Amino acid sequence: MIARNWLPALLSLIVTACAQIPEGVVAVDDFDAGRYLGTWYEIARLDHRFERGLTRVTATYAARADGGIDVVNRGFDAAAGVWREARGKARFVGSRDVGELEVSFFGPFYGGYNVIELAPDYTYSLVAGPSRSYLWILARQPNLPGEVVDRLVARARDLGFAADQLIFVRH
Prior knowledge:
- By secondary structure, the protein is of the alpha+beta class.
- The protein has a single domain (2-168), classed as Lipocalin.
- Helix content is 20%, strand content 39%.
- The chain contains three helices and nine strands.
- The chain has helices at 2-18, 33-36, 146-158; strands at residues 38-45, 54-63, 69-77, 82-92, 100-106, 109-118, 124-128, 135-139, 167-168.
- It has an eight-stranded antiparallel beta barrel.
- A hairpin with a 5-residue loop joins strand 6 (109-118) and strand 7.
């Protein structure tokens, strides 16, 4: 009897844990991975341990022979006086023309990387992780016009992210 009640709860937990995009958030379509490649500057982020204390953060994306994307995240740790770097790989969750990917920095473990807003000229993007605890504003330059940042922050807030907790990155 206990096993019958336990199994549906476990299956529900597994399905929820595998979700790669927050509920109610949609990745952009008409996504062109080739145009997205290159270096992006982190304008703002929600705090998380793997970037805590870093400034001058960039993410560089390069095409892989297998159709995936190499990822290099880099930032300066002023407290230690050193650059920190993480290398990973990304792959599309479904169609290559939808900005819904998953990225791994740790072997077989992947987390959602979802482009939820993208400038038509690919000069800025709003990226969500697998939950509302992860959010980034990225741009091709180290700065974005204030009205663009304000609009992206408002969009994040409307989607249920803790936009008031964004950390704005020094470059």
